[in-house]
Specification:
By secondary structure, the chain is an all-alpha fold. The protein contains 9 helices and no strands. The N and C termini lie far apart (about 50 Å).
Length: about 200
Protein backbone atom coordinates (compact mmCIF):
# COMPACT_ATOMS: atom_id res chain seq x y z
CA UNK A 1 0.00 0.00 0.00
CA UNK A 2 1.42 3.38 -0.99
CA UNK A 3 1.95 6.10 1.61
CA UNK A 4 -0.79 8.28 0.06
CA UNK A 5 -3.33 5.45 0.03
CA UNK A 6 -2.42 4.51 3.60
CA UNK A 7 -2.99 8.07 4.81
CA UNK A 8 -6.31 8.25 2.95
CA UNK A 9 -7.44 5.04 4.63
CA UNK A 10 -6.37 6.33 8.04
CA UNK A 11 -8.28 9.57 7.50
CA UNK A 12 -11.41 7.65 6.48
CA UNK A 13 -11.16 5.42 9.56
CA UNK A 14 -10.66 8.41 11.85
CA UNK A 15 -13.71 10.13 10.37
CA UNK A 16 -15.81 6.95 10.56
CA UNK A 17 -14.97 6.47 14.24
CA UNK A 18 -15.94 10.05 15.09
CA UNK A 19 -19.24 9.74 13.21
CA UNK A 20 -19.92 6.42 14.97
CA UNK A 21 -19.53 8.13 18.36
CA UNK A 22 -22.14 10.67 17.27
CA UNK A 23 -24.49 8.05 15.84
CA UNK A 24 -24.40 5.89 18.96
CA UNK A 25 -24.67 8.84 21.34
CA UNK A 26 -27.73 10.08 19.48
CA UNK A 27 -29.36 6.65 19.88
CA UNK A 28 -28.19 5.71 23.39
CA UNK A 29 -26.97 8.89 25.09
CA UNK A 30 -23.37 10.03 25.25
CA UNK A 31 -22.61 8.51 28.66
CA UNK A 32 -23.77 5.07 27.48
CA UNK A 33 -21.42 4.93 24.49
CA UNK A 34 -18.39 2.68 24.95
CA UNK A 35 -15.20 2.53 22.93
CA UNK A 36 -15.94 -1.14 22.27
CA UNK A 37 -19.33 -0.31 20.76
CA UNK A 38 -17.84 2.44 18.58
CA UNK A 39 -15.10 0.14 17.32
CA UNK A 40 -17.63 -2.59 16.54
CA UNK A 41 -19.78 -0.09 14.64
CA UNK A 42 -16.86 0.67 12.33
CA UNK A 43 -15.56 -2.90 12.18
CA UNK A 44 -12.25 -2.33 13.94
CA UNK A 45 -10.81 -3.30 17.32
CA UNK A 46 -10.85 -1.12 20.45
CA UNK A 47 -7.08 -1.03 20.15
CA UNK A 48 -7.42 0.51 16.70
CA UNK A 49 -9.77 3.13 18.14
CA UNK A 50 -7.12 4.06 20.71
CA UNK A 51 -4.53 4.32 17.97
CA UNK A 52 -6.52 7.31 16.75
CA UNK A 53 -8.17 8.78 19.85
CA UNK A 54 -7.61 8.90 23.59
CA UNK A 55 -11.36 8.57 24.14
CA UNK A 56 -14.77 9.38 22.70
CA UNK A 57 -14.46 13.06 23.69
CA UNK A 58 -11.23 13.25 21.70
CA UNK A 59 -13.02 11.76 18.68
CA UNK A 60 -15.66 14.48 18.82
CA UNK A 61 -13.05 17.22 19.24
CA UNK A 62 -11.41 15.86 16.09
CA UNK A 63 -14.73 16.01 14.22
CA UNK A 64 -15.29 19.58 15.35
CA UNK A 65 -11.75 20.67 14.47
CA UNK A 66 -12.09 19.14 10.99
CA UNK A 67 -15.28 21.14 10.36
CA UNK A 68 -13.67 24.34 11.66
CA UNK A 69 -10.61 23.75 9.48
CA UNK A 70 -12.76 23.38 6.37
CA UNK A 71 -14.73 26.52 7.18
CA UNK A 72 -11.54 28.54 7.61
CA UNK A 73 -10.15 27.11 4.37
CA UNK A 74 -13.33 28.13 2.55
CA UNK A 75 -13.21 31.59 4.14
CA UNK A 76 -9.59 32.09 3.14
CA UNK A 77 -10.48 31.28 -0.46
CA UNK A 78 -13.22 33.92 -0.70
CA UNK A 79 -12.52 37.18 -2.62
CA UNK A 80 -10.69 39.73 -0.50
CA UNK A 81 -13.06 42.54 -1.47
CA UNK A 82 -16.17 40.59 -0.50
CA UNK A 83 -18.04 41.65 2.62
CA UNK A 84 -17.06 39.50 5.61
CA UNK A 85 -20.66 38.45 6.29
CA UNK A 86 -21.10 37.35 2.66
CA UNK A 87 -17.85 35.41 2.87
CA UNK A 88 -18.88 33.73 6.10
CA UNK A 89 -22.31 32.78 4.76
CA UNK A 90 -20.85 31.34 1.57
CA UNK A 91 -18.13 29.43 3.44
CA UNK A 92 -20.49 27.91 6.02
CA UNK A 93 -23.02 26.89 3.37
CA UNK A 94 -20.30 25.35 1.20
CA UNK A 95 -18.92 23.25 4.03
CA UNK A 96 -22.22 22.19 5.60
CA UNK A 97 -23.76 21.20 2.25
CA UNK A 98 -20.69 19.12 1.44
CA UNK A 99 -20.88 16.89 4.51
CA UNK A 100 -21.64 13.75 2.47
CA UNK A 101 -24.96 13.15 4.16
CA UNK A 102 -23.78 13.57 7.76
CA UNK A 103 -25.08 17.08 8.41
CA UNK A 104 -27.21 15.46 11.14
CA UNK A 105 -23.97 14.53 12.92
CA UNK A 106 -22.86 18.14 13.13
CA UNK A 107 -26.28 19.17 14.44
CA UNK A 108 -26.09 16.47 17.11
CA UNK A 109 -22.56 17.50 18.06
CA UNK A 110 -23.65 21.11 18.54
CA UNK A 111 -26.43 19.90 20.83
CA UNK A 112 -24.02 17.68 22.78
CA UNK A 113 -21.69 20.60 23.38
CA UNK A 114 -24.42 22.20 25.51
CA UNK A 115 -24.40 19.31 27.98
CA UNK A 116 -20.91 17.82 27.62
CA UNK A 117 -18.27 20.48 28.36
CA UNK A 118 -15.55 17.83 27.99
CA UNK A 119 -16.09 18.00 24.22
CA UNK A 120 -14.98 21.63 24.00
CA UNK A 121 -11.73 22.27 22.19
CA UNK A 122 -8.78 22.18 24.59
CA UNK A 123 -6.18 24.93 24.70
CA UNK A 124 -2.57 24.14 24.04
CA UNK A 125 -0.86 22.86 27.19
CA UNK A 126 2.52 24.33 26.27
CA UNK A 127 1.24 27.87 26.53
CA UNK A 128 1.59 28.46 22.82
CA UNK A 129 -0.84 30.35 20.66
CA UNK A 130 -4.06 28.42 20.01
CA UNK A 131 -3.88 27.46 16.30
CA UNK A 132 -7.54 28.36 15.75
CA UNK A 133 -7.02 31.80 17.29
CA UNK A 134 -3.85 32.31 15.25
CA UNK A 135 -5.62 31.36 12.07
CA UNK A 136 -8.53 33.65 12.89
CA UNK A 137 -6.19 36.58 13.45
CA UNK A 138 -4.34 35.84 10.20
CA UNK A 139 -7.67 35.75 8.37
CA UNK A 140 -8.65 39.12 9.82
CA UNK A 141 -5.31 40.55 8.73
CA UNK A 142 -5.81 39.08 5.24
CA UNK A 143 -9.22 40.75 5.04
CA UNK A 144 -7.90 44.05 6.41
CA UNK A 145 -10.04 43.77 9.53
CA UNK A 146 -8.08 45.82 12.04
CA UNK A 147 -7.84 45.21 15.81
CA UNK A 148 -10.99 47.24 16.34
CA UNK A 149 -12.88 44.94 14.02
CA UNK A 150 -11.95 41.65 15.70
CA UNK A 151 -15.09 41.74 17.82
CA UNK A 152 -17.14 42.27 14.66
CA UNK A 153 -15.45 39.33 12.93
CA UNK A 154 -16.01 37.09 15.97
CA UNK A 155 -19.65 38.19 16.09
CA UNK A 156 -20.09 37.35 12.40
CA UNK A 157 -18.70 33.84 12.87
CA UNK A 158 -20.71 33.33 16.05
CA UNK A 159 -23.96 34.39 14.37
CA UNK A 160 -23.15 32.13 11.42
CA UNK A 161 -22.63 29.16 13.76
CA UNK A 162 -25.95 29.82 15.51
CA UNK A 163 -27.67 30.12 12.13
CA UNK A 164 -26.22 26.77 11.07
CA UNK A 165 -27.49 25.09 14.22
CA UNK A 166 -31.00 26.47 13.86
CA UNK A 167 -31.13 25.54 10.17
CA UNK A 168 -29.88 22.00 10.81
CA UNK A 169 -32.37 21.44 13.62
CA UNK A 170 -35.16 22.10 11.11
CA UNK A 171 -34.04 18.96 9.26
CA UNK A 172 -33.34 16.55 12.10
CA UNK A 173 -36.61 14.63 11.82
CA UNK A 174 -35.90 13.16 8.41
CA UNK A 175 -33.33 12.62 5.69
CA UNK A 176 -31.84 15.89 4.51
CA UNK A 177 -32.09 16.54 0.77
CA UNK A 178 -29.05 18.64 -0.24
CA UNK A 179 -31.12 21.17 -2.15
CA UNK A 180 -33.56 21.59 0.76
CA UNK A 181 -30.71 22.05 3.24
CA UNK A 182 -29.00 24.61 1.02
CA UNK A 183 -32.25 26.56 0.63
CA UNK A 184 -32.81 26.57 4.40
CA UNK A 185 -29.25 27.73 5.05
CA UNK A 186 -29.46 30.50 2.48
CA UNK A 187 -32.74 31.75 3.92
CA UNK A 188 -31.36 31.56 7.46
CA UNK A 189 -28.34 33.67 6.57
CA UNK A 190 -30.48 36.14 4.68
CA UNK A 191 -32.74 36.50 7.74
CA UNK A 192 -29.70 37.23 9.93
CA UNK A 193 -28.44 39.75 7.39
CA UNK A 194 -31.82 41.49 7.28
CA UNK A 195 -32.11 41.55 11.07
CA UNK A 196 -34.51 40.23 13.65
CA UNK A 197 -37.08 43.02 13.65
CA UNK A 198 -39.52 40.85 11.63
CA UNK A 199 -39.46 37.55 9.75
CA UNK A 200 -38.79 37.62 6.04
CA UNK A 201 -41.87 37.09 3.88
CA UNK A 202 -42.34 33.62 2.42
CA UNK A 203 -40.50 33.10 -0.87
Amino acid sequence: MTSGLRETKKAATRQALAVAVLRLSEAEGFDSVSVEAVAAEVGVSPRTFHNYFAGKEDALRFYLSEVIDRIFTALEARPGDEGFWDSAAAAFIEVICDRDGDAWALAHLMTLMDTEPSIAMKKSRDGGIDPIVARFEALCEQRSIGPGGLTYARLVLGCAAVGIRVALEDHLDGEVAPEALRATLQRTFEQIRTGMAAPLPDP
